[in-house]
Amino acid sequence: MSSTSSTLAPDSLALLGRQLQRARRNPALLVMTQAMPVMLLLFFGYVFGNSVSLPGGADYRTYLVPGVFVITAAGGLVTGMLQAAGDTQRGVMDRLRTLPVSRAAAPLGQATADVLLFAIGMIPLVAVGYAVGWRIEGGFGPAAGAFGLLLLLRFVTAWIGILVGMKLGSEEAAGQLGSVTFILQLLCNAYVPTAGMPGWLQAVVEWNPLSSFVTACRDLFGNATAGAADAAWVIEHPVVASLGWSVLLLAIFVPLAVRRYARPAEG
Amino acid sequence: MTSSYAVLSEGLEKNFGSGDHRVEALRGLDLAVPEGTIRALLGPNGAGKTTALRILTTLSRPDAGTATVAGHDVIREPAAVRRAIGVTGQDAAVDHDLSGRENLSLFAKLHRLRGAAGRDRADELLDTFGLTDAADRPVRTYSGGMRRRLDLAAGLISRPRVLFLDEPTTGLDPASRNQIWAAVRDLAAEGTTVLLTTQYLEEADQLADDVVLIDHGVAAHTGTPAELKARLGAYAEVVVADESALSAAAVILGPLTGSEPVIDHEARTVGAATTKAELTLPAVVRELDAAGVPILDAGLRRPTLDEAFLSLTGNTTGSRTGSRTAQKEPAA
Fold first, then answer.
1. pLDDT of B45-84, one tens digit each?
2. Keyword Nucleotide-binding on this protein (chain B) (predicted)?
3. Are A178 and A38 in contact (CB under 8 A)?
4. What are the chain B neighbours of A267 within 8 Å (beta carbons)?
5. Class of B5-223 per CATH?
6. Is B183 helix (H, G, I), strand (E, B) or coil?
């Protein structure tokens, strides 16, 4: 086994390179993926924006932009799922499995490539954020921390997506499930504050890991607004909670994905 | 456990599902493939061919039995097996978004062929398979035959000692099929051991040194293509001028061939399998003519795979079309 673990880095790099080559060959897909958050930003920002009143009269678009960043990062769930399902469906996963390649290399290469592509895609999105009036108000250090959290969230969600995609094994099914994940975005505090929600719904929304990330990004970018008075611990301590959620989810989903890759289901 | 066998399996068993849905895909499969030979696993959809290949290529674990490939145990030493094998599946398992060259470079890197060594090997294989002109186009623009050739090239990157081909020509046009066959023959001539699955008697006959007839998860018969054909005998078929002559022809053909004739009213044919080596076409024609049966056409030919299965195992394959359709076994 030592001979296979020593190949993890070069194998992952080779498979990471594959994903970047795919993106270069298919730039339309990248543009489409990036158009979606821009649409969300403009749609929520200008159509709903004027009817949402925030505590303390804060600007809605400034409130919204970190939320859209987090939603975009969480899109790793869908890209990971589609990619892994497609590779499983077309037999590419099986071919990789018959190669003398480290068992963690394929999912690790894919997740890392997804983080890199997300980082590139964030550049135009940040520009649009600036154009609608959002600003980094908390200094360079905390802002870098916020971007770090976004990359981490992308990495986490990509692993989850890769596991689910391998299990689904069909691009069609992955596409359908992908559209259902829209509900996860609505059940967090990216678009609206939790203050006006009924108590039970507020609890559900606050314990959605995405809400911790959204709150942490607002804090670190210096866009924070007054939160609900009785917010859950994961909202009161959003940065620690985001890191905690990441560790927990990686501890669950990385071993599951690697195991699933190493030993596919049969029958 | 002698090392002169590239593939050796004993009593391989594999079941899928449970209860009423339990499928016994393999029920004690024994294989012994000498190094440097081409072995064909011949059988219909669902016979267990793909399941056997998945176990031998480390993609699946048997419920019982043992197997070694290139001297390494497939369960205990999968990494060593993977270093020794090349695999080409039913699907062209290449990345459709990448070019042919990018695909081969990727698989070269994953086989530790880096830099110039990998590039040279990719160029060499592109040339061998007539893909040099299309090398820098995305694979999604390739024809089915080109994709299959690229898939085979990808399986050969590492110059494997043992090459596994799962239905390498299913669904291909005759020209592409002949290209694949020629490439497989060249590989075997250079000493590569090839284990392939096929639904086509013709493919097994053309390529294999030995054929294993797989039926319901066991080896029903093993031998050279010539032995298999001799054992299967021949199939006599006559076309009559009018429908009323069908039963008269059947009455003659039955005793001549020693088997129950099959009448096709639509095509106005009567056919019967025979293992009588002494039976000749003139004898068939003479007998029918003497009985006054108006025959338009007559033939004595090798049986199709369907007919062979009927005579060797008593089972039909379930697909009596005989056409080269791109069917797949259920995903394992």
1. 888 999 999 999 999 999 999 999 999 999 999 999 999 9
2. yes
3. no
4. 16-17, 23, 332
5. alpha beta
6. helix
Q: d(Cα B14, Cα A267) in Å, to the nearest integer?
A: 10
Least CB–CB distance from A22: residue in B23, B95, B107: B95
Contact B217, B26 (CB under 8 A): yes
Q: Inter-chain contact A98–B57, Cβ cutoff 8 Å?
A: yes
* Chain B residues interacting with chain A (CB cutoff of 8 angstroms): 16-17, 23, 57-61, 79, 82-83, 85, 87, 89-99, 102, 106-107, 109-112, 138, 154, 332
Hey, what are B237's tokens? 């078929």
Question: What ranges do the domains of chain A cover?
Answer: 39-262
- DSSP character for B331? P
DSSP label of B330 = P
Q: What is the distance between the alpha carbons of residues B212 and B191, in angstroms, rounded to a whole number?
A: 21
Domain ranges of chain B: 5-223, 229-315
Is ipTM > 0.95 here?
Answer: no
Q: Which residues in chain B are closer than 8 Å to A100, comparing Cβ atoms?
A: 79, 82-83, 110-112
Partners of B107 on chain A (C-beta within 8 Å) are 95, 99
Handedness of CA B187, B189, B190, B195 (dihedral sign): positive
Which residue type occupies B88? T
Separation of alpha carbons A210 and A249, rounded Å: 12
Lookup: tokens for A123: 């550049």
pTM of the model: 0.83
User: Which residue in A2, A18, A79, A260 has the most chain B C-beta atoms within 10 A of its own C-beta, making it the best mutation to test that interface?
Assistant: A18
Q: Which amino acid is at A83?
A: Q
User: Do B58 and A94 count as a contact with CB atoms less than 8 A apart?
Assistant: no
Residue-level pLDDT at B92: 66
Cβ–Cβ below 8 Å for A98 and B99: no
Residues of B in contact with A94 (CB under 8 A): 59, 87, 89, 93
Of the two residues A266 and A146, the one the predictor is more confident about is: A146
Please give the Cα distance from B290 to B292 (Å, whole number).
5
| B229-315 to CATH, choices 3.30.70.1520, 3.30.70.100, 3.40.140.100, 2.30.110.10 | 3.30.70.100
pLDDT digits (tens, 9 = 90+) for B165-210: 999 888 888 888 888 899 899 889 999 999 999 988 888 888 999 9
